[in-house]
């Protein structure tokens, strides 16, 4: 049975899930969720993912609604493939657990929103620049209003909408202090990872082959999924200079260069900084999907009207008679 992955190409947590499915090479259907159109809070999606976030994975009746759970589930359904989360018999498995938990503490959303709003702390930021604190607050308020209306209209989803409103109200993604703290915490985590890579690669910075280890093990694990997507986020958020460039953390730089060669990474993250592919196309697709019943209705109406006008002035077309002859 095919998997369906609901995601947005520009979303950080979606990239984790996508990188994982691409790594496993399992067949999956893509359903892109358009955030700007509010698709993630539409009732049909809230019934799949009550938190209204991406990613979500559907496999028959089974639904996974968190990127880490999706990664673990992929391990479960591919018992013969190397494990993202290897068991204790595999050398380096303890480091996988430790570094994954460590990277899980990074507030990536705070860093993304902070980089959008406080450009002075970024360099070559690739995130859309029409975004600022005022715009962010207006969008969050508008989303809150929309969710209140949806909660009234769909009593079965009321609790999910109210929980989501609470989550939104309880966080302050545009707070400058929180952003700077998150960056600082990230700095020290990147330092630990640099040391880990230094031990593993011991002076090797390029010409990697399949026999060279990844962050913790000989194969690509969940820790690599977390690190690869994180480094990619730093690129988009204009944080490369701070995190690894100019010889600051040469192993991290080498890691990013190496992971960029990986097909799975290119497929999972490649379109994230393409405004057309990651924002405009999903928005257009969503609008067409939504307008489809109306478009169909309008087309049938316009065709019938055209035919009626034609018949009025020119009589029945020949194919009409032919069809009638065939029938009777
Ligand atoms: N813990 C979740 C987090 C998912 C998440 O927060 N996704 C973001 C996109 S990167 C989202 O959908 N945010 C929209 C919102 O919070 O309303 C996971 O790991 O999948």
Which value, in Å, is the CA radius of gyration? 25 Å
Query: Under CATH, the topology of the largest domain is which?
Result: Glutaredoxin
**CATH top-level class of the largest domain:** Alpha Beta
Instruction: State the distance separating the first and last CA atoms.
Output: 47 Å
Contiguous uncertain segments of 5+ residues:
none
Numbering strands along the chain, what is their spatial order in the largest sheet? 2-1-3-4
Query: Helix segment count?
Result: 14
CATH architecture descriptor name of the largest domain? 3-Layer(aba) Sandwich
What percent of residues adopt helix (DSSP H or I)?
A: 55-70%
| Ligands, deduplicated | glutathione
What's the name of the CATH homologous superfamily of the largest domain?
Answer: Glutaredoxin
Question: What string gives the helices and strands in order?
Answer: EHEHEEHHHHHHHHHHHH
Domain unit count: 2
Largest sheet: 4 strands, mixed
Coarse shape: globular
Structural class: mainly alpha
Tell me how many strands there are: 4
Q: Give the strand content.
A: 5-15%
Arithmetic mean pLDDT: 92
SSE layout:
Elements: E1 3-7, H1 12-24, E2 28-32, H2 43-46, E3 56-59, E4 62-64, H3 67-77, H4 93-104, H5 108-117, H6 133-153, H7 158-169, H8 176-201, H9 222-236, H10 240-243, H11 250-260, H12 263-269, H13 275-314, H14 318-327
The structure holds glutathione (GSH).
Residues 11-13, 40, 52-55, 66-68 line the site of glutathione.
């Amino acid at each position: 049975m095919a998997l369906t992955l609901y995601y947005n190409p520009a979303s950080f947590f979606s990239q984790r899930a996508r990188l994982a499915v691409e790594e496993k090479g399992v067949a999956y259907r893509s359903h892109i969720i358009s955030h700007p159109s509010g698709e993630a809070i539409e009732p049909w999606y809230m019934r799949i993912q009550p938190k209204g976030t991406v990613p979500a994975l559907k496999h028959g009746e089974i639904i996974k609604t968190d990127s880490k759970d999706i990664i673990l589930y992929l391990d479960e359904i591919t018992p013969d493939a190397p494990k993202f989360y290897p068991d204790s018999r595999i050398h380096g498995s303890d480091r996988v657990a430790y570094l994954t938990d460590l990277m899980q503490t990074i507030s990536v959303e705070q860093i993304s929103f902070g980089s959008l709003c406080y450009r002075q702390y970024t360099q070559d930021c690739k995130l859309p620049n029409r975004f600022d604190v005022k715009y962010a607050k207006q969008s969050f308020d508008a989303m809150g209003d929309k969710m209140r209306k949806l909660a009234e209209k769909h009593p079965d989803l009321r609790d999910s909408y109210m929980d989501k409103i609470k989550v939104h109200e309880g966080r302050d993604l545009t707070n400058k202090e929180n952003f700077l703290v998150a960056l600082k915490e990230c700095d020290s985590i990147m330092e630990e990872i640099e040391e880990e890579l230094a031990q593993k690669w011991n002076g090797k910075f390029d010409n990697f082959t399949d026999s060279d280890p990844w962050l913790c093990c000989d194969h690509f694990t969940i820790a690599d999924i977390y690190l690869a997507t994180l480094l990619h986020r730093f690129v988009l958020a204009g944080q490369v200079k701070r995190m690894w460039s100019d010889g600051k953390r040469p192993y991290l730089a080498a890691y990013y260069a190496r992971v960029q060669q990986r097909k799975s990474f290119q497929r999972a993250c490649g379109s994230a900084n393409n405004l057309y592919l990651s924002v405009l196309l999903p928005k257009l697709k969503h609008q067409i999907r939504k307008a489809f019943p109306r478009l169909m209705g309008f087309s049938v109406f316009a065709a019938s009207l055209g035919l009626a006008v034609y018949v009025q002035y020119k009589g029945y077309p020949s194919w009409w008679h032919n069809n009638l002859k065939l029938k009777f």
